[in-house]
Specification:
GO terms for molecular function: N-acetylmuramoyl-L-alanine amidase activity. By secondary structure, the protein is α/β, with parallel strands linked by helices. Helices cover 48% and strands 19% of the residues. Zinc ion binds next to loops.
């Protein structure tokens, strides 16, 4: 089981960047929760936790400690950027002394970029290193990266961040980056198909009507006596039997008319 700790930055009294009627703390929580949902519903062999799943403040050192105590394999801290309104685009960080996290950093950066670029061209600020607290306190025991997806204080980037679909695609970019770096496999669609193949549902009155018809046909010697009527009365027909019987009844109706 691959353990992934996603860390939505800021929270509580710490808003992070606040601009254009949006706050970084709310958007990164949304992105993180969606990324968790995508990973857990679409991929197998992965367990995802969030350092916070609501709007509360957590010390930076505690975020790293939560990941270490759990024994996380991957740590992804999710942020949005700000400068002076003029900078824009995305950049992705690992710790200065880390080289193990390079693959995770590259995969996240590329996936986030390509997912946002389904909406608009953006500035690629590249792969970077920094001595951020959450990276410093995690990189020695897990792959750890911090993402900065667009500048909330930039008019063009903010326009993108306002769109729900962009937020979902940023989440999907994070999920895909983790999937690549962790080598996760997609859940097979078998279980979904089984559900679709589930028993055909008939209402009680439909069963009764079918039982009547079957009785008539048995009386006329068109069906083996007793067997079908019993089965229909007890609602004990497989899907293929039900289909066959429905066909037989429809044919007879057509002939009778
Ligand atoms: Zn931040």
């Amino acid at each position: 089981m691959v353990k992934v700790m996603i860390d939505p930055g800021h929270g509580g009294h710490d808003l992070g960047v606040s601009a254009y009627d949006m706050t970084e703390k709310a958007l990164v929580l949304d992105i993180s929760q969606q990324a968790k949902g995508i990973l857990e519903s679409e991929y197998e062999g992965v367990e995802v936790r969030l350092t916070r799943s609501n709007d509360r403040f957590i010390q930076l050192s505690d975020r790293a400690r939560m990941a270490r105590d759990w024994g996380a394999d991957f740590f992804v801290s999710v942020h949005l950027n700000a400068f002076n309104g003029s900078a824009n685009g995305i950049e992705t960080f690992m710790h200065n002394n880390s080289s193990a996290s390079a693959e995770l950093r590259e995969a996240l950066h590329r996936q986030i970029k390509s997912h946002i670029e389904q909406h608009d061209r953006i500035t690629d600020r590249g792969l970077k290193q920094a001595n951020f607290s959450v990276l410093r306190n995690t990189y020695q025991s897990m792959y750890s990266v911090l993402t900065e997806s667009l500048f909330l204080d930039n008019a063009n980037d903010a326009e993108l961040l306002k769109q729900e679909q962009v937020i979902t695609d940023i989440a999907r970019g994070h999920a895909r980056g983790i999937v690549e770096a962790a080598g996760l496999t997609r859940k097979s669609s078998e279980s979904e198909n089984e559900e679709e193949d589930d028993e055909m549902k008939l209402e009680n009155w439909q069963w009764e009507q079918m039982a009547e018809k079957v009785k008539d046909m048995e009386d006329e010697g068109l069906l083996d006596e007793g067997r079908w009527h019993e089965a229909v009365k007890n609602h004990e027909l497989s899907n293929s039997e039900l289909t066959w019987l429905t066909f037989i009844i429809a044919s007879r109706q057509a002939l009778v008319k």
